[in-house]
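Deliverable D4.2, example record:
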Amino acid sequence: MNFFKALIPGIVLTWIISSVIGRGGSKGGFLDIHAVLIQGHSVHWSWPLFLAATGLAWFIFSTLD
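Output generated by the structure prediction step:
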């Protein structure tokens, strides 16, 4: 259950950080930020950052439980 709760903060953190770095024109190096076209809207996304943010949130939720 903690994993599913950790998905929301992981998505939000990834979206915010990727948007800030991606709009500046940077790829973020290891983060590999790229623009994704969803129904005509461009969204910046990073899978490595998503995995790290979700793992961090999962760890925090697990230690609090």
